[in-house]
Amino acid sequence: MSPSAETITGSDAPLSEQHATKITLAGKVIAVTGANRGIGLGVAESCLDNGAAVVYSIDYAEPGDEFAAASKRWPGKLKAIQADVTKEVTVTAAIDKIVQESNAIHGMVVNAGRTNHKAALDFTEEEIHALFNINLFGAFYCARAAARAFIKLNVKGAVVFTASMASYRPNKRVPSAPYGASKAGVRNMTHTLAMEWAKYGIRVNSVSPGLVETAMTYWVPQQPDWEQQLKYYGGMPRLAQIQELGGAYVYLLSDAASYTTSIDIPVNGVIGKISIREKED
Fold it and tell me: What residues does 266 pair with on adjacent strands?
C-alpha cells in the first residue's frame, strides 16, 4: 500500500499534517479501462508521469502500436489485461489479477466508452443498446468491482469516471441523445456512489472532457465552418490534446484529494458552455 494519509491518520501528528498536500501518485497501483489508446492511454501516461508504481489497461481490444510505444517509456510499469467491461465477471477477474500481481489496487479510472452521433430518429435499437451497455452499464460494473476490491483490501480507493460535456447539454452540430443520456447517467452515478461508499473511505468523482483530439474526432476541425464555430462557442480556439486531461484525473486519484468526492471536473477550454449569443438564440 502506498504511503498516504490513511497510514498516518490516528497518529499524534497535528491534524494539518495528517493529510497529503502534494499531488502525486507515488507507489499507487491504478487501473484504467479502455487505455490501449486514446484518452485512456493518455490518462495512464499521466499517472505514470506522476509517480504511479504501475498502471494497468483493462481493454477489450488487443494493445496496438500506441500502447507499445508508451510501454517502452515505462518498462514493466504499463501493462494490459483483456476484459469485456460489459461483463462484470470479466472485470472482476481482471481486478483480481491486478491484486494478485501487485498486491494492491488504489485507483480505478472508468474510461472505456463509445460514441455515435446522429439524429435521435435515426438510431437503431441495437445502436442504442451498444452505447448504454458500455457507457453506463459497463461503467457501473467497473466501479462496483473496484469498490469491492478496495473494501476487501481495506484501501481508501478512488474511482474516477470519464463523463462528457455532452452530459450537460447537447451539441447542435453533433447530436446524440443516447450518448448524452448515458454520460448524464455516469455523472448521476458518480454522486450516488460517492454517497454510498463514503463510509468505506472510497471517493468517487468524474471528469467531463470537451472536444479532444482523438481518432474519433479527426473530422471536427475539417468542417468548412470550423473557425466560425470556434468564434460562436468562444473559449480556447482548438481541440484539447489528450495529455491536457490528465491533470484532472491525477488530482482526483491522489491523496491530495482526500476530501474531494461527488464532483465532476469539466475539462473543455470553455468550449461547450452556453454563450450569451446562444441564450439570445
Answer: 208
Please answer whether residues 117 and 163 qualify as being in contact, where contact means their C-beta atoms are separated by less than 8 angstroms: no
**What CATH number does the domain containing 140 carry?**
3.40.50.720
Q: At what angle do helices 177-197 and 138-153 cross, to 10 degrees?
A: 20
- Examine residue 229 and state whether it is found in any structural domain, yes or no: no
Taking alpha carbons only, the member of 115, 194, 187 closest to residue 147 is 194
Residue 7 has pLDDT above 50, yes or no: no
DSSP state of 176: -
**Quick check: is 120 in a domain?**
yes
Q: What is the pLDDT of residues 140-199, one digit of tens each?
A: 999 999 999 999 999 999 999 999 988 888 776 677 899 999 999 999 999 999 999 999
Per residue in 11-21, pLDDT (tens digit) is: 566 655 667 78
Which residues are paired to 160 by β-bridges?
109, 205
Catalytic residues: 164, 179, 183
Counted domains in the chain: 1
Percent of the chain past pLDDT 70, that is, above it, reads 79
Is residue 31 within 8 A of residue 234, CB to CB? The reply is no
Q: What is the residue range of 90's domain?
A: 5-220+240-273
pTM (2 d.p.): 0.86
Instruction: Cell 518498462: give the residue.
Output: 75
Burial class (CB in 10 A: 0-12, 13-18, 19+), 49: middle
